[in-house]
């Protein structure tokens, strides 16, 4: 067991020494340390502080920490300075999928095998939990994000790619949800291997991306939409210029230059305490079209940016990818229409349906299910793919891949663009 009071004390001490060194460097006209240099310097300071602590314990006639205890303390201090404090062991566990915190001492963890277990407290008090979130908000993403009484909601991407959502003052106790990005660098072959898609669906999606078809990925919360989007994006050739637009940076395509050397990642900017400085998703999508994109990828559509995005898809930026919340592939069209009604353009339903028909080529629906007959194992799989065929007062579509016996999508109806996809390597069996 790690002594968290010691971690807290030493974190403050190391932080003070680190800040002092920053001030000295600035006073001497030296350039600021890089992130990696600062981490290395912090490790040296941590060793120094722990050595001083051990000498002090010996001087008082007490037993100093063992090598194992010192290593645990060093890891805890480093995590408190540069990571996520007591949450770090959970984020280091590759089997953890979701972490839900309802106050500092009510922690629930979901694992990849379907288990949901309680966990030790992640802070000594709710105030300390809020302080931890505030530190993360200050250093994650492209700009500092406030988290306080005036700004009680927060969404951000953690350094490991996980997505954090937090609220305070609108709940009895501060609440935090962290959704892990277990598969960051993921390919279609990985999804075929773990059963998310079948080989035929994998070949179809690869061909659709190569043919620059506009794809909308739909599903419920935590169904695996973002992971599928990453895999699809990794089918795009390295020579293409990608612009990603997100509420909080999550996709991380720019982190793999060997796959995507030319990426610009846009992140929505929230207003400051005076209500100024906001840059909305819709504005970022519009801005992305002026940045010479080969493709525009919108991480998640949740509002009025939908109209701008659909317009972008019909203006020569073919091959766009996006995700949306929906309960079925058919429901996506109603969800888009609802968002369009809320946009500043106030598009009527008929106009929205015409825009959808001209913009989206395929809707890919992914779902998750606990298969209790398989011991409660959590499954994620693509169950339906719908091709948009046109508009006649409503969006016309056909389910080209429908759920098979095990729920996974299998070929169901002919594709109208089969020849085009065949030119990119897709050869469906049985048609």
Automatic annotation (TrEMBL):
- Alphabetical list of Gene3D superfamilies matching this protein: 3.30.450.380, P-loop containing nucleotide triphosphate hydrolases
What species is given as this protein's source? Nonomuraea fuscirosea
Q: Name one GO molecular function term.
A: ATP hydrolysis activity
What family is this protein classified in? Answer: Belongs to the GSP E family.
Q: Where is the Bacterial type II secretion system protein E domain?
A: 89-344
Q: Which PANTHER family match?
A: TWITCHING MOTILITY PROTEIN PILT, TYPE II_IV SECRETION SYSTEM ATPASE
The record ties this protein, via Pfam families, to: T2SSE
Q: Which named protein is this? A: Flp pilus assembly CpaF family ATPase
């Amino acid at each position: 067991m790690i002594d968290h009071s010691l971690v807290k004390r030493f974190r403050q001490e190391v932080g003070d020494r680190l800040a002092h060194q920053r001030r000295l460097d600035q006073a001497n006209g030296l350039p600021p340390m890089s992130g990696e240099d600062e981490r290395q310097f912090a490790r040296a300071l941590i060793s120094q502080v722990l050595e001083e602590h051990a000498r002090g314990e010996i001087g008082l006639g007490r037993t100093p920490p063992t090598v194992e205890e010192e290593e645990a303390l060093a890891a805890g201090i480093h995590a408190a300075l540069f990571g996520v404090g007591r949450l770090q062991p959970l984020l280091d566990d590759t089997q953890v999928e979701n972490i839900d915190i309802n106050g500092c001492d009510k922690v629930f963890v979901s694992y990849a095998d379907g288990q949901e277990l309680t966990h030790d407290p992640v802070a000594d008090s709710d105030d300390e939990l809020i302080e931890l979130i505030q530190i993360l908000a200050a250093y994650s993403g492209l700009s500092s994000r406030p988290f306080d009484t005036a700004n009680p909601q927060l969404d951000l991407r953690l350094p490991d790619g996980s997505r954090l959502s937090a609220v305070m003052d609108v709940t009895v106790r501060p609440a935090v949800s962290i959704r892990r990005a277990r598969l960051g660098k993921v390919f279609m072959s990985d999804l075929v291997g773990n059963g998310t898609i079948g080989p035929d669906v994998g070949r179809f999606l690869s061909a659709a991306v190569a043919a620059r078809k506009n794809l909308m990925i739909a599903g419920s919360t935590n169904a695996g939409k973002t992971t599928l989007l990453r895999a699809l994006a990794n089918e795009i050739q390295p020579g293409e210029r990608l612009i990603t637009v997100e509420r909080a940076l999550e996709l991380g395509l720019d982190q793999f230059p060997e796959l995507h050397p030319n990426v610009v990642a846009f992140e929505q900017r929230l207003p400051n305490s005076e209500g100024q400085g906001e840059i909305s998703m819709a504005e970022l999508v519009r801005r992305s079209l002026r940045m010479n994109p080969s493709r525009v990828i919108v991480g998640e559509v949740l509002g009025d940016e939908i109209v701008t995005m659909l317009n972008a898809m019909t203006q020569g930026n073919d091959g766009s990818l996006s995700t949306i919340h929906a309960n079925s592939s058919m429901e996506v069209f109603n969800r888009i229409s609802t968002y369009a009604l809320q946009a500043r353009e106030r598009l009527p339903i008929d106009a929205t349906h015409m825009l959808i028909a001209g913009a989206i080529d395929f809707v890919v629906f992914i779902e998750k299910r606990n298969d209790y007959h398989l011991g409660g194992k959590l499954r994620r799989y693509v169950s339906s793919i719908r091709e948009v065929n046109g508009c006649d007062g409503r969006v016309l579509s056909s389910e080209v891949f429908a759920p098979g016996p095990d729920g996974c999508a299998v070929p169901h109806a002919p594709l109208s663009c089969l020849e085009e996809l065949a030119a990119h390597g897709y050869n469906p069996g049985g048609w």
